[in-house]
Description:
Two copies of one chain form a homodimer.
Chain A: E1 9-15, H1 22-36, E2 42-47, H2 55-64, E3 69-74, H3 81-93, H4 100-103, E4 107-110, H5 118-134
Parallel strand pairs in A: 1-2, 1-3, 3-4
Amino acid sequence: MIKESEEDMAVVLIGHGSKMxxxxxxxxxLQRLMELRGVxxxxxxxxxxxxxxxxxxxxxxxxxxxxxxxxxxxxxxADGTHTTxxxxxxxxxxxxxxxxxxxxxxxxxxxKPIGVDERIVDILLDRVKAAEAGNGE
Amino acid sequence: MIKESEEDMAVVLIGHGSKMxxxxxxxxxLQRLMELRGVxxxxxxxxxxxxxxxxxxxxxxxxxxxxxxxxxxxxxxADGTHTTxxxxxxxxxxxxxxxxxxxxxxxxxxxKPIGVDERIVDILLDRVKAAEAGNGE
Lengths: 137, 137
């Protein structure tokens, strides 16, 4: 159940980033759909590498905008060095140094990746059926 | 709607593979859930790299078992060089050379990755709520 407080919360969808357009298209598409749910005050996309905006840029923009609570979720299927080391380290340093003041009153929460879920199985079953249909069956 | 013919079909869930356990745990978990759906004659996991079994191993095992139709789906969130180049190349060569005979009567269909989907947004919303709960809210 969505709580009132979440109306004052921003969500940052963190993508891997890629030289190809696909990962950014995925994150932008998910961001639009989540924004349409109208649950959070702000829904942003940020990339670990290669694409823009960076995690640091987005966290600092949100802090400047006055958001006091940010939940950052890695849009990854499973944990790995990116979600357990690289991204947490970037989140930790985003408000350090000259930015310490900016982040002092911001509650930053880091979520878990997608993981094993029946809804992923539902999607994979759809992809299997679409692949068959694509072969004229 | 599931068709009768799919009862004679095998699905191969293709994972990225990783030195860490998370990716294999994800694929194994999704494989178990899909197997429980009871839709396909066989549901296997195969890895592009680092984990076992390999894509070649699984395709050849299935062909030897007499399966005539295999749908291989990349368990990736979005397309990239892995899904558009690396995996298709491996699928193409799996039955070449000494294996040409084995694969001659096997219909091999390659599916699309997960992509933008409302069900992914549902999962991400759950992860956001779980992250908040984890912070005692």
